[in-house]
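Give me C-alpha cells for this 81-residue protein.
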Amino acid sequence: MDSLFELWDGFELWLVQLPYPLLVTLVLVVLVPTAWAVSRLLDHGVDIIAARLSREPGADPPLRSADVPISGATADREASE
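Here you go.
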C-alpha cells in the first residue's frame, strides 16, 4: 500500500509542477470526457428507474433526441412522396 501512496505522491507532484496552460489542457482532456460519460450513465440510469416506477406497466424509457425525427426533414419527405 505504501508503494501506491508513493506513486500517487509522485504523480501529484508532477502534475502540480506543470506549466499552467499545459495543466489546464490536461485537466480538460481528462475531465470533460469523464464528466460526459458519468452524466450519460446517470441519465440512462434515471431513465430506466423512471420507466420501472411508471404507472404504465410496459413503459419504455423516454425517447432520445436521435430517435425523434426532425420535423423539417419529415415534412420534406412527405412533400416529395
